[in-house]
């Protein structure tokens, strides 16, 4: 599976709620500071990643081209 867009987390805005890491653990994980980060950009379909973007309370998950 290869997505056409690259997802990233704007860590400064992350609330550490862990929602994204719980929903899509193959894409997101929590770092040593308990902030979310992307560890595998192709770990889920773009539609699933978009769902995580839409439900992120910090509005801090973005596509790189946006
Ligand atoms: S859903 Fe958003 S606020 Fe919550 S951990 Fe993930 S990136 Fe951070």
Automatic annotation (TrEMBL):
It comes from the Bacteria. GO terms for molecular function: 4 iron, 4 sulfur cluster binding; electron transfer activity; iron ion binding. Pfam families: Fer4_15 (PF13459). Gene3D superfamilies: 3.30.70.20. Keywords: 4Fe-4S, Electron transport, Iron, Iron-sulfur, Metal-binding, Transport. Its cofactor is [4Fe-4S] cluster. Residues 5-33 form the 4Fe-4S ferredoxin-type domain. Ferredoxins are iron-sulfur proteins that transfer electrons in a wide variety of metabolic reactions. PANTHER family: FERREDOXIN. This is Ferredoxin.
């Amino acid at each position: 599976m290869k997505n056409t867009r690259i997802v990233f987390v704007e860590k400064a805005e992350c609330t550490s709620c862990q929602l994204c890491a719980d929903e899509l653990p193959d894409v997101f994980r929590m770092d040593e500071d308990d902030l979310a980060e992307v560890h595998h950009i192709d770990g889920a379909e773009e539609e699933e990643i978009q769902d995580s973007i839409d439900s992120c309370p910090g509005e801090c998950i973005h596509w790189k081209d946006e």
